[in-house]
Please model this.
Amino acid sequence: MTTEYTERIATKNITMIQAINDGMRTVLERDPTTLILGEDVGKNGGVFRATDGLQEEFGEDRVIDTPLSESGIIGTSVGLAVNGLKPIAEIQFMGFIYPAYDQIMTHVSRIRMRTMGRYSVPLVIRAPFGAGVRAPEIHSDSAESLFTHMPGIKVVCPATPYDAKGLLIAAIEDPDPVLYMEPMHSYRSFREEVPTDYYTVEIGKGKKRIEGNDVTLITWGAMVPLVEKVANQVKGRGIDCEVIDLRTLYPIDEGLIAESVQKTGRAVVIHEAPKTGGLGSDIVSIINDTSFLYLKAPIERVSGFDVPVPFSSLENHYLPTPERINRAIEKVIDF
Amino acid sequence: MEEVYPLKQIIDDHGNLVDKSSKSLITRELVQKAYYHMYRIRTFDKKAKSLQRQGRIGTYPPFEGQEAAQVGSALALEENDWLFPTYRDHGAMLTFGADMTRTFLYWNGRLEGCQPPEGKHIFPAAVPIATQILHAVGASWAEKRKGTKNIAIAYFGDGATSEGDFHEGLNFASVFQTPTILFNQNNGYAISVPFERQMNSKTVAQKGIAYEIPSIRVDGNDFFAVYFAMQEATRRARTGGGPTLIEAVTWRTGAHTTADDPTKYRPDGIGKDIVDPLLRLERMMKNEGYWDEEFIQSTRERIEEEIDDAVKAMESYPKAKPEDMFDHVFAELPEQLVKQKESYLQLLRGE
Model:
């Protein structure tokens, strides 16, 4: 016998950027040790309005406008975090995270290991990323594999408003540093019902967005809605795609990938970042390690090219397009 | 700028008290404490160099010549303060309360060496340059937010002032008025690059002006000059006066590390006129009537014994376990790391 019941929970129909804002508000209310640091996060409420209204509500002491200084933001966050606080540091665009890379690589990700757990850095670094919004140069980078390759930090990347809030709260509650990548292309592109209260989405778990039997499409971030669209289109031609939204890029949900590929025997990985050294290569390796004998065709990757993200006039040629994804699907089906 | 930031001295090279106004502040207890710690870290440093030559520890960066700067600064701290050292500041760490066996263990490549005694806030030594300045600013900012009187000290060298993190650290400390001591040991060289090539400015202290941070330039080989400057700076920090930049002008007597040969880049005879800080203290003790043969002998014996015991403890420490490499990267190991660990341990077990 199964019991079905619906728990009535209050929800709001909101965008991803509103869900991120709501996630931060939720933790600022619940946990007095949390604080937000970043450039323009206070009075201005963030260049994307992610922190809109938070300084007004929680004060200048909790939502702090810092100098324009990425290494300064992350480096001082290390000191704050080892001394009992939980900083949520905003890097205005992922393309500006590079000055802080040294701090993240040599300290944020290593302090727990170096001190055998005596000190830890429960820090969340929020960074909008990705192309397709006609932003100026450098503003559109997808640098996730610089961090998935870095031992000692988790990397998450929501694709929907619901996951954005739940993953953000989970990231803040995590005892270790988490890079929280925000697909800026999806900030306001659609709405979803999001619980108004506290909830979390487990770090390390991907999600099957569409069930299918013929080919597994693995992706994350702003590529998820695009890939879903393509999956729905090819369904009309009789190709049954399974779409996996990884949600966490480290530690990656290997079980979910293996289970799906073992069912479909075919896989296409889609990401915005350049191909060489991109996370797609790791996913191919995971499939190789777990599901080699199930494969019916070589795995395809649709990604950005090995070029710096081009100026906005060409960014749509750089990003994976429905045509390229279609071509890859056909290739693995027709093999 | 050397006129704006003259080198503050309390005792000169001959051990004469040149700042008579400090006479009343110098007590027998303070002098003996200074001697004890300077002799202790000097002996530790010598021992470490000799252990490295015998292959009993790894590459080691000596701090000989910088004992007055390290002891003078660390002794001015209070129990609950935070210390953010570089790899050349284990003298300051030991003075502040780091465990000697663990300090040897660190230089023998052991993680245990980064663990401070329970309740003591000593960060692991920063190996990149200047990064720890920001950590000290952050940790002391947290203390300020909590409303305590605790402060943090960041140690850094002359080379660090060329790094972005030095400037970002000073700026954050200034903007948020954090209770931070920015303690520069200007020891003349960053590996092979001399001070004059590191910067065109004549002092480090003057860099405080740009950030509205009070700064002072002291003779870093004069324990008392360092100690009293630190006292003023810590008082300011504890009472809401914000950060202070202290430039302690000192001298790295030896090599950058045991893997370095300074004769390749240092002109012959350079530094020969610099009077060793411990010798200077001894001269002062003799001149001012603090020399007590019995105290000196018993102190030296006590220290030799402590160091011998620490070396023995380091060498008899249980062997490092391969598990340790995996177990502390995250609070809870992700599945992939568990798999990597298990498969390697199986291989080691011959399975």
Observations:
- Chain A has twelve helices and 14 strands.
- Chain A touches chain B through 44 residues (CB under 8 Å).
- The radius of gyration of chain A is 20 Å.
- Chain A has a mean pLDDT of 96.
